[in-house]
Amino acid sequence: MFTHTAIASLNGLEMLVYHYVIKNRDKVMYMTIRELAGAVGVSTTTVMRFCRKFNCDGYSEFRVRFKLYLEQNEPQQANSGASEIISFFKSVNNDEFDKLLDAAVDIILSSERIIFVGAGTSGALAKYGARFFSNIGKFSNHIDDPYFPVTNDMAKNALAIVLSVSGETEEILRFASQFSLHHCKVMSITSHEHSRLAKLADYNLSWHFPQTRIGGVYDITTQIPVIYILESLGRKLAKKLA
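^ that's the sequence the OP posted. Answer follows.
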């Protein structure tokens, strides 16, 4: 029901509805459309658009199909805290997402070297990605300083894989733009393909999670989807290099 393509078609407000539904699946089954809209803080029109993007004519049909989805796919769901992670894995466990990964691997193979880029937590994952790919046999390094100078030599025949949860961090956007100006291909891995970084990149992979911050400053958004994407790319790459 919640395919990667359908989730990717959601706008910002519709994504709020999606994450509320996933986190509160038991409640949603008994909520009216007005109650759901009020709980999320959106209009009933937004909820209707959300339903239609999952091929439902209205909210009533969505609730019926959602109930069947839960009965068929998650009969023993016990840990509601894991619901979003489980939903992510279900949305990418298909040929559609596999083809997106295959296309990304082809881009990686055509590049002489890989430069992983990120700041903060994404910087730590950039280091992990570079080591993982190097273990496979694809020369990679990482940059976790968004003010690191980009030169023609480092960008030549390279691919910059830029990691960012929001895809809106100004320093990362400026850094990615520098790679583009030096004719370096840019691949982004973000939480949503509607971000500025995703639109700037030559290729984007998204994982559709809301950003979570403490005190509006410290980002504690889960990075499990990013690790899954990096390792999936690496394993596919290893098979092609073998």
